[in-house]
Amino acid sequence: MKKTVCLLVLLSMTLAGCASKLSPAEQQFVDKLGSQGFNASEVRNTLKKAEKRDDIIALMTKPAESKPWKTYRPIFMTDSRLQNGLAFWQEHQATLNRVAAEYGVAPEYIVSIIGIETNYGRFVGKHRVLDALYTLAFHYPPRSPYFTGELEQFFLLSREQQWDMTQPIGSYAGAMGYGQFMPTSYRKWAVDADGNQQIDLFQSPSDAIASVANYFVKHGWQTGGAVMTPVQMPAVYPESMNFPKRDLAPLEDLLAVGAQAELPLAPHWHAVLLSYEEEQGIAHYIGYNNFRVLTRYNRSPMYARVVHEFAQQLKDAMSADQS
């Protein structure tokens, strides 16, 4: 009997040791952070607090952006989101005007981004950022390098902000705050706009507003620049011209294959060709530099278009409200 008990205890200890052992990839991560001044034991203990979430992997494989435009648009372009956007704009109008003057980004695009991302802070996500980044870094091979980098940035950001890493809540991809900044974006482009010596994208709308504008500018936003316009394309044209297969290119390339638009097209402009599945069939658009900037916030052309169209809806509604 005594021998059996000892064997059971030994087996239990072995299993516990195996459960707590880091994978080679995790150990490599610990070693890398150790070279950046982190205590290896603390990094290991933090990783052990992270939970692999199968629901996060499921969400990553079926994003809303995989839907056709005619299905995607109604998710975001709603009356309630519009009313929330107008209320947010009115409440923070002084900050939006100041930021627009400083950065050259029209208020409607800032308000649109925050509305599309979190409905003005009403839904900033429900997953621990640590769990999301850990799951995608070590259990989602298709994008493991990217999310391993973001997990590293989260450690650095948490050290700078003096966060308990188990506390921040965000999206299933690890994005945070009003504008859903990834850790890299938080560290590189978030700014302190309210002057309290702290960058807080969770509780400070002012910081969020200025950070979105700064993000745009750092990625090449052109003040007053065009975003997108409808275009007629011939029935047959090279598929390789479509975004994202092809990024910004001379507009002459599109004109050469028969692109036609109601608005004048300046040949020296650079643009991308966009195709959307609308109710009446496939519709084509030309996206300019500022469209490209929107895709730096989210690579999807569906996302960039809905941000643009919601911005125009907000601007029109705000003008009507003030008239």
From TrEMBL:
The active site is at 117. One of its GO terms (molecular function) is peptidoglycan lytic transglycosylase activity. Residues 1-18 form the signal peptide. It comes from the Bacteria. Keywords: Signal. It holds the Pfam family SLT_2. PROSITE patterns: PROKAR_LIPOPROTEIN. One of its GO terms (biological process) is peptidoglycan catabolic process. Transmembrane segments: none annotated. The keyword Signal applies. Residues 26-312 form the Transglycosylase SLT domain. CDD domains: Slt35-like (cd13399). PANTHER family: MEMBRANE-BOUND LYTIC MUREIN TRANSGLYCOSYLASE B. This is Membrane-bound lytic murein transglycosylase B. It comes from Permianibacter aggregans. The lineage of its organism: Bacteria, Pseudomonadati, Pseudomonadota, Gammaproteobacteria, Pseudomonadales.
